[in-house]
Design a protein that fits this description.
Distance between the termini: 76 Å
Strand order of the largest sheet: 7-6-12-3-4-11-8-9
Shape: globular
Radius of gyration: 27 Å
CATH topology of the largest domain: Ribosomal Protein S5, domain 2
Largest sheet: 8 strands, antiparallel
CATH class of the largest domain: Alpha Beta
Strand content: 25-35%
Number of strands: 28
Number of domains: 5
Helix content: 10-25%
Length: 491
């Protein structure tokens, strides 16, 4: 008491509170003006836990379930490393990697457990801003970059081939918005394609595909700003100016009713024909489950070797819904019974039956359009709160909370993505340039009937325009819909 507290004691207390998540040290500065950067870096060293002080990373199986084993932070343990970022620069591809356990040496051969392929480590570098330092080895706790890896993507596990293991992967949400892009100079189309390929490697939440009908290049991302930045990178970094189509929302479809149905595929033409009968139930699955297939067939009416064909038939259809052609989510199909012919039945016959059964039954299951709902965080001066809330309500938004601060009000809300295009400009107008907001995807929710009718009509009009070879963005398509196949254990 009465004595000045030592700096080391203050740092020790801040470190303890930070490690326990009791509080979070905050620094104000500007990297652009080189203000406070050194203090932040010193704080990382002084207050954040070192690799030995954090919980070890869990290992998982191929389905993502924890195995009970952990990547212990120990250089003597088998190698466990996670590729967390890919960056392409003038020296080649850099794979930023955190080593959770073991030691990685220059010249080692490592196993990528996601691809099942091995690669030899050529060069290891330690990054210092935009400079790098060659190193011969790295060990548990280090973050380094590997130069020239060919088959590694963000989230892949790199390990000792003699002791394979997989770390918990990074999860990236599906895109919720898409636009069509086209090089202004037709001669730069190939250059644009190469640039987009590099950008996809660097950002797993960014996707590119070519519409099979129109041949247009479609880019997909997590929001309007996300895609605006990508278009700007194309121009500034890669020197490709592009024309951009109207943004398109990544709608989904789902069903709301349970339907029991039967379909018989029968075709006879001369010699051997085709025959497959399936009795099945189509019903909504749990939210987030994707496509689930289950077989409850007993007695051999549909031989076990034909079950995968039935699953394949239904799974191949969920990428296109019956209302507007959007991917169908959270759909469960249960094969309950059926019939087969000793000569005419085949896997292809049952696959065709499943596809036809999908087209027959989904319209009966009260399908609906789902729209992406965004989580919105708005800051506004106090005298503009009423205008901001009124505007969010007009955008079909739902206010979740409102907190007053010394500088203004913070409003948290949810609103459909389709209503939020151009919001930043409107917010600046309402708040005289002082308002700010952030937005990220939250969940999918059913569209109101009038909105769904408009979406269906617009989609049909867009398809008609596309068939006339006009430049308009194609609707998003499915990206390998997740599905599970359940087989009764008593069979």
């Amino acid at each position: 008491e009465g004595e000045e507290i030592a700096i080391d004691d203050i740092k020790r207390c801040i470190r303890t509170g930070t490690r326990k998540l009791d509080f979070f040290p905050t620094y104000c500065g500007s990297s652009f003006k080189n203000k406070c950067v050194q203090l932040v870096l010193d704080a990382v060293v002084d207050y954040l836990p070192n690799p030995m002080e954090v919980n070890p990373q869990p290992e998982v199986d191929l389905e993502g379930h924890e195995t009970g084993s952990f990547a212990i932070v120990d250089p003597e343990k088998p190698l466990r490393a996670l590729a967390f970022k890919i960056m392409d620069d003038r020296f080649g591809a850099l794979t930023f990697t955190r080593i959770y356990s073991g030691t990685l040496n220059k010249g080692d051969t490592i196993l990528n457990t996601f691809t099942g392929k091995t690669e030899r480590i050529g060069r290891l570098v330690e990054m210092h801003a935009d400079s790098r330092e060659e190193i011969d080895k790295a060990q548990a706790g280090d973050i380094i970059a590997i130069v020239g890896m060919k088959n590694v993507q963000t989230g892949h596990t790199l390990c000792d081939p003699k002791h394979p293991a997989t770390l918990e992967p990074m999860v990236f949400p599906d895109p919720v918005i898409s636009i069509a892009v086209e090089a202004k100079n037709k001669g730069e189309s190939e250059k644009m394609g190469m640039a987009l390929s590099k950008m996809v490697q660097e950002d797993p939440s960014f996707q590119v595909e070519t519409d099979q009908e129109s041949g247009q290049t479609i880019i997909k991302g997590m929001g309007e700003l996300h895609l605006d930045i990508k278009v700007d990178i194309l121009k500034r970094t890669h020197g490709v100016a592009v024309e951009v189509g109207k943004p398109q929302v990544a709608y989904r479809e789902s069903i709301t009713k349970r339907v029991e149905d039967t379909y018989v595929h029968k075709k006879q033409s001369g010699g051997s024909g085709q025959y497959g009968k399936i009795d099945y139930i189509i019903e909504p699955a749990e939210a987030g489950e994707g496509f689930v297939f289950e077989s409850k067939v007993t007695g051999g009416n549909v031989p076990r070797e034909y079950w995968p064909a039935v699953e394949k038939g239904f799974a191949s259809c969920v990428g296109k819904g019956v209302l507007a052609g959007f991917p169908v989510v959270d759909l469960k199909v249960t094969l309950t019974d059926g019939g087969f012919h000793a000569v005419d039945s085949s896997a292809i016959a049952f696959e065709i039956a499943a596809k036809a059964g999908y087209r027959q039954s989904v319209p009966k299951a009260a399908p609906q359009i789902l729209e992406p709902i965004m989580r919105i965080d708005v800051f506004t001066p106090e005298d503009h709160v009423g205008d901001v809330i009124g505007d969010l309500n007009r955008r079909r938004g739902m206010i979740r909370s409102q907190d007053a601060t010394a500088m203004g009000s913070r409003i948290k809300a949810e609103a459909p993505l389709s209503e939020m295009f151009g919001y930043i400009g409107d917010l600046r107008t309402m708040t005289s340039g002082r308002g700010q907001f952030s937005m990220e995807f939250d969940h999918y929710a059913p569209c109101p009937r009038n909105i769904a009718e408009d979406v269906i009509a617009e989609t049909k009009a867009r398809e008609a325009a596309k068939s006339r070879s006009g430049f308009c963005p194609a609707k998003p398509t499915s990206r390998n819909p997740s599905h599970r196949f359940l087989i009764p254990t008593d069979h």
